[in-house]
Design a protein that fits this description.
pyridoxal phosphate, cysteine desulfurase activity, about 40% helix, alpha/beta, four-stranded antiparallel sheet, seven-stranded mixed sheet, 2 domains, pyridoxal phosphate binding, Aspartate Aminotransferase, domain 2, Aspartate Aminotransferase, domain 1, Cysteine desulfurase
């Protein structure tokens, strides 16, 4: 006799997120801004508070009981979060977030380019005329660090175009990759378009020329079953506050050989073996990349958040969110004057849609929705070049998560359908 998994119970899930009981302007809160910051389950809140109340201490320092307890909690959190993305603990370095992780990657490659790190790091060196390949769809955090690296090394930035439907032009990507390509950095999921990019194809293009791959997994980690080693990327980053965890914590994943070869970016206490007045020797990864005081309670909270997701189950969450994505798409398509970005047929995606309302600025749309209790994102979403590519300066972005209900999506759609009339825009 076969048994099926229990149905996804979104009402039960919502009970685990205290903030969802709030009201806005006398309306129940409909939180559709999870792509910016996801809300935290009580399990994550309680885990961080429990650590601070019972074990708060500096890690990897001191012989007293609290220091040992804190270190155990910190390293246990590393093991849990690494396992969540299919990695070994030594392949995961804590950062303050994805932006810090991308800067770490870019500056470590820059230090290698400056001759730091010895022979092992020479494979990462950039010279004038070498190329860094990005996409038109990158978040500024995966664009500006590479701009800075190019400026320091004389390397040239190149960009894979985005088609009108929001997908990457992979024919152009194949033409852009050359024997001068040294880094290929791209988002797993666009934070504006919601489309899952073809990681395997991009990794293969990079491998053909020996380029280092860097993956921004901020928008995929909360929604997709991630196995970073299986994806074949050299480096990847994700952020805690988008993964139902605390602010101020994220991670840099790296293949073991890559982390062992790269020189550090930040230096100071806790990442060294021996220091003299004139030189220092560094610890093995991941501690080599963890100078100074670490986000200990935040790591504990993030581990609790991913354990919570594991208890619910990736497949159940994915099915729920896929249904919401279709509901949002179909509803927005049917509203006069609404232009959807990234409406690619059959593209794999997450439940995130950006759209423009003809004749009404995105900020006005956002305020109108807020007055009805619906929280969405407005602006360029730290992706000005992508908006410029579509002839826009700003859009409205609605993004769902495991706690989002069909009713909340419908409330958003109803509010959007009344925007143009409210602002006196006629066809």
């Amino acid at each position: 006799m076969s048994t099926s998994a229990p149905a996804f119970d979104v009402a039960a899930v919502r009970e685990d997120f205290p903030i969802l009981a709030r009201t806005l302007h006398e309306h129940p809160l409909a939180y559709l801004d999870s792509a910016a910051t996801a809300q935290r389950p009580r399990a994550a809140l309680d885990a961080e508070i429990a650590f601070l109340e019972s074990s708060n201490s500096a890690v990897h320092r001191g012989a007293h009981t609290l220091a040992a307890d804190a270190t155990d909690a910190f390293e246990s959190a590393r093991e849990v979060v690494a396992g969540f993305v299919g990695a070994a603990p030594e392949q995961l370095a804590w950062t303050s977030g994805a932006t810090a992780g991308l800067n770490l990657a870019a500056y470590a490659i820059g230090n290698a380019s400056a001759g730091r790190g010895g022979r092992a790091a020479s494979r990462f060196r950039l010279f004038a005329g070498d190329e860094i390949l990005l996409t038109e769809a990158e978040h500024h955090a995966n664009l500006i660090p590479w701009q800075e690296l190019a400026a320091r090394t004389g390397a040239r930035l190149r960009h894979i175009p985005v088609r009108e439907d929001g997908t990457l032009d992979m024919d152009a990507a194949a033409r852009l990759v050359s024997d001068r390509t040294r880094v290929v950095a791209f988002a797993h999921v666009s934070n504006v378009l919601g489309i899952v990019n073809p990681v395997a194809e991009l990794v293969e293009l990079a491998r053909m020329v020996g380029a280092t791959t860097v993956l921004d997994a901020c928008q995929s980690a909360p929604h997709l079953r991630l196995d970073l080693p299986a994806l074949g990327v050299d480096l990847a980053v994700f952020s805690g506050h988008k993964l139902f965890g605390p602010y101020g914590v994220g991670a840099l994943y790296g293949r073991t050989d890559v982390l062992e070869a790269l020189p550090p970016f930040l230096t100071g206490g806790s990442m060294i073996t021996t220091v003299t007045l004139n030189e220092a020797e560094y610890l093995d990864p991941p501690q080599r990349f963890e100078a100074g005081t670490q986000p200990v309670s935040q790591a504990v909270g993030l581990a609790a958040a991913v354990e919570y997701l594991g208890r619910i189950g990736h497949d159940a969450i994915a099915a729920h969110e896929a249904s919401l994505a279709l509901r949002m798409r179909d509803g927005l398509r049917g509203i006069e004057g609404v232009r959807l970005l990234g409406d690619a047929a059959d593209a794999e995606r997450v439940a995130l849609w950006s759209f423009d309302v003809d004749g009404v600025h995105a900020h006005d749309v956002g305020q109108f929705l807020d007055s009805r209790g619906v929280a969405v994102r407005v602006g360029h979403h730290c992706a000005q070049p992508l908006h410029r590519r579509f002839g826009l300066t700003a859009t409205v972005r609605a993004s769902a998560a495991l706690y989002t209900t069909e009713d909340e999506v419908d409330r958003m759609l109803e509010a959007v359908s009344g925007v143009r009339e409210f602002f006196g825009v006629t066809s």
